[in-house]
Amino acid sequence: MSDCIFCKIIAGEIPSAKFYEDEDILIIADINPQAAKHYLMMPKKHYTDIADMAEKDPEALGNIFKKLSGLISELGLDGGFRIVSNKGENGCQSVGHLHIHVLGGEKLNEKMG
Ligand code: 5GP
Ligand code: ZN
Q: Which atom of ligand 1 is nearest to the CA of 94?
C-alpha cells in the first residue's frame, strides 16, 4: 500500500521508535502518547482494521497477542495494560492499517469512552 503511513514505517521510509520487530509484526511508540507508555502493535501485512485481519487470518491475529504476552516485562507493562483497536468512523480510526494500541505504565482512567 504505497499511500499507507504505517506501511511506510514498516518499510523504514518513515522513522519510528521501534520496541519490537520480527518477520510478522512491529511494535512502535505512538507519536502522540495517551498514557505513560503507549505502543502501537501492527502486522507487517496490510489489513485495514482488526475485523479485516480476523476474517482473513485469525491465527496470525492470535499470534500478535501471544507475542505481546511474552513482551510484557520488556515493555514495562508488568503493572497491567489496556488494549484498544479502533475500527471505522464510529471508532475514530485515523490510520487505515490495523494497529492495536497498548496503553499502560500508569493507572489508567476507569472510563474508556
Ligand atoms: P487510530 O486513531 O487510527 O486508532 O490511531 C492512530 C494512531 O497513530 C494515533 O494514536 C496517532 O498518534 C498515531 N500515529 C499517527 N501517525 C503516526 C506516525 O507517523 N508515527 C507514529 N509512531 N504514530 C503515529
Ligand atoms: Zn499499510
A: 3
